[in-house]
């Protein structure tokens, strides 16, 4: 079934047979996400793993994520975090610890900003229904809210990256070890 939500077409898959067609047979056709201005801001023009269009760049991001963040050894190392965390904070806690390590003092601030971004982007906004009317993004204040949160997230991530660089220079870490997190791996790459 095809629904038209403002200017945005939405396909509703209501049978197992059609779901199989979409998810298996035609998965590449449905792999990319539609244009979404807030996501474009947050993801640096769709350059992250979540909003990146299907292609070589996305495949490379996925490969890094699977081999470094989701490896059996890395997932096992966060068993105690998973057992102690509440469901809501589980996603942010595990992801930020795996990505940034235990050393960053900005982890909680980053998780808070990501939570605000998620709330803002997942809520209803009339501007999302009419993406060609860019003026709606400005009139609703939506774009300025997203840009403000994006700048705050950038500031925090920049601090985390600088902490990692400083730590690496101080400790002269040259080999891959259990003490590395995703930021260390990405800085090497």
UniProtKB/TrEMBL annotation:
Identification of the protein by name: Cytochrome P450
Keyword line: Heme, Iron, Metal-binding, Oxidoreductase
Top-rank taxon: Eukaryota
Keyword RNA-binding in annotation: no
GO molecular function: heme binding; iron ion binding; monooxygenase activity; oxidoreductase activity, acting on paired donors, with incorporation or reduction of molecular oxygen
Family note: Belongs to the cytochrome P450 family.
InterPro entries found in the cross-reference section: Cyt_P450 (IPR001128), Cyt_P450_sf (IPR036396)
């Amino acid at each position: 079934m095809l629904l038209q939500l403002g200017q945005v077409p939405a396909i509703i898959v209501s049978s197992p047979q059609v779901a199989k067609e979409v998810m298996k047979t035609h998965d590449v056709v449905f792999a990319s996400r539609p244009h979404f201005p807030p996501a474009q801001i947050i993801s640096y023009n769709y350059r992250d793993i979540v909003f990146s269009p299907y292609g070589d760049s996305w495949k490379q991001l996925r490969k890094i994520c699977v081999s470094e963040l989701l490896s059996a050894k890395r997932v096992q190392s966060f068993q105690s975090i998973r057992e102690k965390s509440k469901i809501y904070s589980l996603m942010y806690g595990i992801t930020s610890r795996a990505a940034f390590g235990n050393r960053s003092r900005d982890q909680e601030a980053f998780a808070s900003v990501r939570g605000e971004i998620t709330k803002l982007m997942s809520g209803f906004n009339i501007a999302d229904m009419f993406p060609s009317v860019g003026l709606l993004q400005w009139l609703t204040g939506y774009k300025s809210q997203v840009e403000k949160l994006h700048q705050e997230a950038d500031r925090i991530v920049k601090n985390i990256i600088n902490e990692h660089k400083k730590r690496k220079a101080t400790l002269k870490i040259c080999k891959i070890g259990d003490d590395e997190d995703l930021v260390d791996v990405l800085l090497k790459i």
